[in-house]
Amino acid sequence: MYMRVALDSPSKKRALLLGTFLLTAAYFVVATLQFVSDWFADRPKVSSLRAATRLDPGNADYHHRLGRLYDLVERNPSAAIEQYQAAVRLNPHDARYWLDLADAYQLSGDANGQARAIEKAVQADPTTPNVAWEAANLYLVEGQTDKALREFRVVMLGDPSLFPSSLRLCWRLVPDVDVLLRDVIPARTDAYVDFLEYLMSKEQTEGTTSVWNALVQLRQPLEHRYLFSYIRYLLAHKAVDEAGVVWRQAASLLGLSAYLPSSNNLIVNGSFNLDVLNGGFDWQYGKLPSVTLTLDAAETHEGHRSLSIAFDGPGVNDAGIAQPIVVQPNTTYRITGYYKNAEMDGAGGPHMALQDLYTSTSYFLSEELRDALAWKSVVGEFTTGPDTRVLVFRVQRLPAGSPIRGRLWIDDLRLVEVTEAAP
User: Fold this and answer.
1) 55, 57, 100, 396: which has the fewest C-beta neighbours closer than 10 Å?
2) How many angstroms separate the CA atoms of 420 and 423, rounded?
């Protein structure tokens, strides 16, 4: 329903025209002031921004910009504080204003003002990582450890790219693995893996055990490369028992039960029927000049595949494939295996070898693996030394370095402890 206004007299018409003119003029003035204040605000000069705040005193952003000029360019903390205070009065919900005010309070030596401003920033935006990062670093400078850790946790939860920096600062604050796991590090696979790698870089072996156990308890998928890296680290630091425990845990977590050693055979994947993992306690290989490694289904002793090693050239010292094997000190073991070769040219030949991982002491060296057009067995016994914990199986070339050409297959490798009841 519309109401009609009768303009049946000249006075009413003049009044309507005057009202329209005044409204238009007011709008024009406001728009002009807004345009002019914006124009001044876009000029990064104190005089321009001061003009903008006078033209539009209710604009919090203009006060904030002017405060930053006083703060960062003019180096005038008191003037900056005045403008930041105006900004937070007009808009208390922008965490950036509070954080800049906290910085200015710090420069002016007002610790209480700084603390209040930080709290206001966190209240205004408690979940944004950038805000939490700024707050955490301000708390860090003030020595407020608990509050800094709380904000670093927000950072880690929200922005994985800031995780490494946050972790370094947290470790500097509280170098306690259990505290950081409980209060700071998010219960996520990527976070635990980063923490594990950081502790390895610091050679905090005891702490890595706690992080690994927390990682296992997540029961979440894990890339094999992280497991292999940790096994290498533990073996390098002679934490043999811990490496064995980790491998057994990973077998359940990652579906690697078929790669566990047993009393029937301490060599993992000795028949090469499984895929080669290239890490952990399975076979590990690398590309070497003049050597080619393949899994061959056409030549097998009893299983589905054998390992084919093709030699073709000089400089061959090793076949480039090996496996670490956990053993016990002062214990007698029997090794068996099978080999076959095509025509082999060159002085000497390859040998199956078992050596101590840490001392390189040789415990077993087979005969030359030559002159076997049909599958031929290798058998040997040896007793480990008083400190031997890890042996390495490898295919060693003697004499090292001289040219050799030909192909060798090995299969059905087995290592068992010899007991009194054994034949």
Assistant:
1) 57
2) 8
